[in-house]
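Re: that backbone. Tokens:
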């Protein structure tokens, strides 16, 4: 499990419903999100858009490397697999704690069952998220976004 992530699936499920979501694509955006998170004291859901494509181990290591510089940052890292069921299954097999997947209900239920057996979760919730792809100042964008969310 990535440093900074909650240890219990129930806690993670609650965070997925309540915490601010930030979509990240690279090391600098992860750093911006974690810096803003550490400064605010809030918890954030980091959604790795390239995590499914690049692989769960790549995303997990990238987040862990950056998180080492922000020990106070509280977050849940989510590997976004979009509609790629195979990527989601591979991510779960590689140790993902949470994968994001959009799939037909019968497929989603089967993947959820597989995730549950490994202590992981599938997130298909539709929530607003700050997408850092086109922000020139990702730290300022993250700070402004986190200010919209009350509490940790």
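Recovered sequence:
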């Amino acid at each position: 499990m990535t440093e900074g992530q909650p240890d219990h699936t129930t806690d993670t499920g609650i965070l997925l419903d309540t915490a601010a979501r930030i979509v990240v694509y690279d090391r600098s955006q992860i750093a911006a999100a974690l810096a803003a998170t550490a400064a605010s004291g809030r918890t954030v859901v980091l959604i790795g858009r390239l995590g499914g494509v690049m692989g769960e181990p790549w995303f997990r290591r990238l987040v862990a490397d950056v998180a080492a510089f922000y020990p106070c940052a509280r977050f849940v890292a989510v590997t976004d697999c979009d509609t790629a069921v195979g990527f989601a299954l591979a991510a779960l097999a590689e140790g993902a704690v949470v994968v994001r997947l959009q799939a037909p209900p019968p497929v989603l239920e089967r993947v959820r069952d597989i995730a549950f057996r490994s202590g992981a979760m599938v997130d298909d919730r539709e929530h607003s998220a700050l997408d850092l792809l086109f922000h020139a100042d990702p730290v300022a964008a993250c700070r402004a976004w986190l200010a919209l969310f009350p509490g940790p």
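The chain has one domain: 9-145. The first helix runs from residue 9 to 18.
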